[in-house]
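step=encode ok
step=design start
structure_in=
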């Protein structure tokens, strides 16, 4: 199963990303019970790419690349449904996103994960991402961990 480009307006992709947000709210005891639905416009701009892995018509994993500026893009929405974890889907999606970033000419990729997600931290560090100071929206969030991968 290889990652394939998927439109962010695909209802299955929207469902997958809404599930990701619900899981993160539970994991971090986010008291705001209004799970914001995924807005496809956030991944519809120039330089954005959503990849998914599908099996038997069901999307099992996703990840996205979102252009920040001419030199950098952000890895977003990395998620694998719990029943499909441990099968290397996240690693395949991340590798494909890194390659897409290289082909797009980005100098670096950045991402944010949380301190309650050791599997994600391990995945990113194994792929060569290194900790950086928290950036942008995550700057003052104590449980956020930000990473960067230099592509050139």
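sequence_out=
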């Amino acid at each position: 199963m290889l990652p394939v480009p998927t439109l962010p307006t695909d209802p299955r992709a929207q469902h997958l990303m809404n599930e990701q947000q619900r899981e993160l709210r539970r994991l971090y005891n986010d008291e705001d019970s209004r799970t914001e639905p995924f807005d496809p416009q956030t991944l519809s701009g120039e330089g954005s790419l959503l990849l998914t892995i599908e099996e038997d018509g069901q999307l099992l994993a996703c990840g996205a690349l979102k252009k920040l500026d001419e030199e950098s893009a952000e890895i977003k929405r990395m998620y694998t449904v719990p029943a499909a974890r441990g099968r290397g889907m996240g690693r395949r999606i991340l590798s494909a996103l890194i390659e897409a970033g290289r082909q797009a000419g980005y100098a670096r990729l950045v991402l944010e994960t949380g301190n309650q997600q050791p599997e994600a931290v391990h995945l990113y560090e194994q792929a060569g991402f290194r900790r950086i100071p928290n950036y942008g929206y995550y700057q003052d969030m104590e449980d956020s961990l930000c990473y960067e991968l230099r592509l050139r």
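step=design ok
step=annotate ok -> The helical segments are 11-27, 89-103, 118-126.
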